[in-house]
Structure formats: C-alpha cells, structure tokens
Amino acid sequence: MRDVYERVIEFNQHRDARFLPLKYKLMTSSAFRFFRGSCHLFYQDLLQQQTWQDQTLAWICGDLHIENFGSYKSAQNVVYFDLNDFDEAVLAYPSWDVVRFICSIFLAGNALKLQDHDLKIIAESLLNEYLTALQQGKAFALEQQTLEGLLKKYIKTVAERDPIAFLNLHSQLNEHKQRVLITDQKKYFPINAKSMKQQLITEFQQHLNSQNEQNETQLQVLDVAIRVAGTGSIGLSRYVFLVEQSVQQQYYLYDVKQAQSSSITVPAMLSKQQPLWQSEAERIQTIQNYMQYITPAGLSHFSFQGQSYVVKALQSEQDKIDFKQCIEKPKKFTDACHYLARLMAYAQIRSAGRNGSANIDGLIDFAAHSQVWKTQLLEYAYNYYQQVLHDYAVFCKAYALQQQRDG
Predict the structure, then answer these.
(1) Within 13 Å and on the Cβ side, how many CA atoms surround 171?
(2) Most buried pick, 103, 194, 264, 267, via CB within 10 A?
(3) What pTM was computed for the model?
(4) pLDDT tier at 84 (50, 70, 90 boundaries)?
C-alpha cells in the first residue's frame, strides 16, 4: 500500500521544523497545491510506472507546472515571462517535463471546475502546441506586443507596478529613521540570533559587491529576515535582504534560497550523465542560464555556513497569472496555457547541445516521432492526475488525524 503521508514526512524530515506545519497545511488546501508540494512523489512513481520510451536527453526544469511560469525583471529593468523555478533541474528526458506539465493542467483545470472531457482536449492541444514549437527548432521570447488575452493583460499590469509601493509593503523607517524589513510573522520572520544575523549581513554584502565589480558604487545591506514562500521549498533556509545603493538612494530586496539536491531520482545511466557541480546552487543557476531567455536581475549563487544559496532580486510577489479568471472557461484556460506549452519547448531548444543535452536536430527528431509515445504519455498524465486526487484525499485524512493526536 502506498503510504503517501509517511513518504511526505520522511522526505521533509531534515527541514526547519518551525515551518513544516505551514507546508503541510498548505498541501491540504487543494489537490493541485499537494501536487506542487510533493514533486518527489511524482518522480518516485514515474520511475516505476512510466509507460513510454524516451532516449533523448535535454535540460529539464524538473518541477514544471503552470505555477512555475511567471514574470520577473532583468538587470535592465525589462519585464519577461518564462519558466522561473529550477530547483529540481537536471539532465533527463524532455518528456518528463511534458508529463508533469500536462498533469498540472488536469489538476489546475479540476480546481477551475473544468470537466475532464474538456481537460483531455486541452491537454492534447497543449501537447501539440509544444511539439509544433519544438519542431520549428527556434527559441523565441514572449513579447507584450505579440501576446493576446489573459497573458497580455497580465504582462501589462506587471510592467506598470510601482516598485516604491512594493518596497514600502515590506520595509519601513524605524525610530532612528533607518529603513528596516517588516517582519509580519507570516512571510517574513525575525532572525533572533544577533551574531548570525550580523554574519549574514556582512557576508552577503561582500558577495553582492564582488558581483558588482563594474559598478564603483558599493551596495550596503541594511537588514535581513527569514522568508517563507512557495510550497515545495518551505522548510529550507531562505532569507530576504534589504539592500541600499546610497548614491542614487535606491533600495532593493534580494531573495536568497537554500539549494538542495534535486528530488528527481534519476536512473543509473542518467546519473553518470550529470555534470560534476561545485554546489547545488551552481547547478540551479547554470541550468537556469541555459533555459531562460534572460535571467532575473541579481541571479548568482552564494555560500554561507557550508550551505549554498541561489540569489536573485526580489520583485512583486503577485508574479503569477491569475487563473481564477478561467473558472468554468475552458477556452480562456487553453488560450492562457498555450503560451506556457511554447515556453517549455523554447527552454529545451535554448539549452540544446549544452553539457550533454541533445542538439536541436535531436529535439526536432524527438518531436517528429511523437506518435510513438504521445498517446501513452497523455494516458499516463490523466491516470496520474486521478492518482494525485486519491493521494491528496489520503494525505488530508492522515493530516487531520495527526492534528487530532497533537491536540
């Protein structure tokens, strides 16, 4: 019998116990949120249950679902929309990203009150969109001028957001007229150990200025707090830094997230293909550089007390498409997601021929022979969607019983 609750607890046992109750509570909020928080279950099951053959190698995001696409700003302050989470990224089979993405379509669509027969049509159309983009063999960027529908409105809204308002939402002036972070005990928490806090500030300031050698203006770290965000990463060490560029009187927020090994358990043959990374943060940053059109401002990796961290400039947290506008609207949902299917293909093309991945012709050939595996993958995605609904119900029941025991 599949003991889903115990598998989740075991996977998370070494994370910060203060925040794990929040993760588990969030995972009970919907089957899709459960899916997002249990990437390890997906791959443990896939290795045992995969029904199709795939010998092509590509760089994959690993945790590809519709909430792991979003907006961000580049160092040049230009807004881009792309894949935006690479914590699980490895060299593996391109179909693994595809099947996880299609599973997320079923789960998100179910939450949006779309019928299964509509979702099967949507899933196949999105797979075809991905295959068409892959066979073109050319990676494009999504630009506001050429977008339509929900995503066009979304990008326009993001571009018009006020960075000062965002800064003031998360920081304030204290009694000494110094800007400090607001620790709301929800997403931002204070660091009580003063010596550790000062060490973080000192070492991160050194890191930032070492990355900023071309700019004569030094950056000063004013404050740091613990940050809790997302679902799958809750319980990992994560910080938000408040940084000042004094000459221009500008302030920035940086997200610094602990990097751990990918939860994708790859077969022995694939394990031998992985590069030897100096750290998990280097793996994440390098693959992100391979797959994204433009990387977020401040992307780098940082070491602290023997752990590696991925660094990037923090922007507005409302950086996801509001899919609630698609409730009971299958066409609107399809129109929004077909851009995501293209981006999945573009990322694989962009990273083709890098460090062991197939070249572009290999990816085109993979797409051209999709009739060999397409039906099996779609069937697997639908069946696994049903399994997630069952696993979610089991997890919620076990969670409720544990809450009763804990009183």
Answers:
(1) 24
(2) 103
(3) 0.94
(4) very high
